[in-house]
Specification:
Elements lengths: L1 H23 E4 L2 E4 L6 E5 L4 H12 L3 E6 L2 H11 L2 E5 L5 H15 L4 E4 L14 H29 L2 E5 L12 H21 L5 E7 L5 H6 L12 H12 L9 E4 L7
Parallel strand pairs: 3-4, 3-6, 4-5, 6-7, 7-8, 8-9
Antiparallel strand pairs: 1-2
Helix pairs in contact: 2-8, 4-5, 5-6
C-alpha cells in the first residue's frame, strides 16, 4: 500500500511537472515555440533581407505576429509567403510619411505593437577627404534618421503595450574604422539615441535594447563593397536573430540594455 501511495504521489508530481512544461511551450505549425513571444505583435524594419529577414523568421517561429517593412516589395512578399502569416508594409525608412503609414497599417492589422526591431541599414565607405555629401547623407538618412522615424512612429503603441524596442547598432559605434566616417557616426548616433530613449521610457514600462553587432555576412556587403573581408568568418544573420529573440523573451522584470555580439575572432 505504501508503495502504491508513493507511486501515485510520483505520478501526480510528474503530471504537474508535465503540465507546467506544457504551460511554457505552445505547439504551432513550426514546432515548439516559446510562450514568451507567442502572440506578440512585432514590427521589423529592413525585413527584406539580412538581419531583418532572419529576425522576422525567428520571431514568427517563436509564435509572434510580424509586420514586415522595407522598400523591396517582391522580397517582402516572398518572405510573407514563407512565413504564412505576416503583414507586408512597404516603406522607405528615410521618409516620415511612409514610415507613419507603414506603422499605421501594421497597427491596424495586428491590433497594436509589442515589439519593434529596427534593422534597416546602409553602408558606404571611403576616405573622408573625398567622401561625397550624397553618400554621407544616404548613410545618415537610412541608419540614423530611419531609426529615429521608426521609433517615433511606433513609440506610443509600444508604451501602451509596455513593450520592447530593439535597435541595431554596430561595433562601429564604439570603434573607429578608417574609411567609415559616415557609418561610424550613424551607428554611434543610433547607440546614443537608444540610450536616451531607454531613459525616457524606462519608468513607463518600455524596455530598449541596443545591439552592438560585429561583421555579419549579409547583402549589406554586396551593396557597400567590402568583399575583400573574410566573410566566412563573420556572424550570420541567424546569429543576430537568435540574440534578438533571447532579449525579447526576457521576463518583464529584466531589461537587457545592450548586447555586444561579435565573431569569434573579433574585429575582422
Amino acid at each position: 500500500m505504501g508503495a502504491a501511495r508513493s507511486e501515485c504521489a510520483w505520478s501526480g508530481a510528474h503530471r504537474r511537472l508535465r503540465d507546467a512544461a506544457v504551460g511554457l511551450q505552445l505547439r504551432g505549425s513550426r514546432g515548439l515555440v516559446s510562450a514568451a513571444l507567442a502572440g506578440r505583435r512585432a514590427f521589423v524594419s529592413g525585413a527584406s533581407g539580412g538581419i531583418g529577414a532572419a529576425t522576422a523568421r525567428a520571431l514568427a517561429a517563436e509564435g509572434a505576429r510580424v509586420a514586415l517593412a522595407a522598400r523591396d516589395r517582391p522580397a517582402l512578399d516572398a518572405l510573407a509567403r514563407e512565413l504564412g502569416d505576416a503583414v507586408v508594409t512597404e516603406c522607405d525608412v528615410r521618409e516620415a510619411g511612409a514610415v507613419d503609414a507603414a506603422v499605421g497599417r501594421a497597427v491596424a492589422a495586428l491590433g497594436g505593437l509589442d515589439l519593434v526591431v529596427t534593422a534597416a541599414g546602409l553602408g558606404r565607405f571611403g576616405d573622408t577627404a573625398s567622401f561625397s555629401v550624397e553618400d554621407w547623407d544616404a548613410v545618415l538618412d537610412v541608419d540614423l534618421r530611419g531609426t529615429f522615424l521608426v521609433v517615433r512612429a511606433t513609440l506610443l503603441h509600444v508604451r501602451k503595450a509596455k513593450g520592447h524596442l530593439i535597435l541595431l547598432s554596430s561595433v562601429a559605434a564604439v570603434r573607429a574604422f578608417p574609411g567609415a566616417a559616415a557609418y561610424c557616426a550613424a551607428k554611434a548616433g543610433v547607440r546614443a539615441f537608444a540610450q536616451v530613449v531607454a531613459e525616457e521610457n524606462r519608468r513607463l514600462g518600455v524596455r530598449v535594447t541596443n545591439m552592438v553587432v560585429g561583421s555579419v555576412d549579409s547583402p549589406f556587403w554586396d551593396r557597400a563593397g567590402g568583399t575583400e573581408l573574410a566573410r566566412e568568418k563573420m556572424l550570420q544573420p541567424d546569429d543576430v536573430a537568435r540574440a534578438i529573440v533571447q532579449a525579447a523573451s526576457q521576463p518583464a522584470g529584466v531589461s537587457v540594455d545592450e548586447i555586444v555580439l561579435m565573431p569569434p575572432e573579433g574585429i575582422l
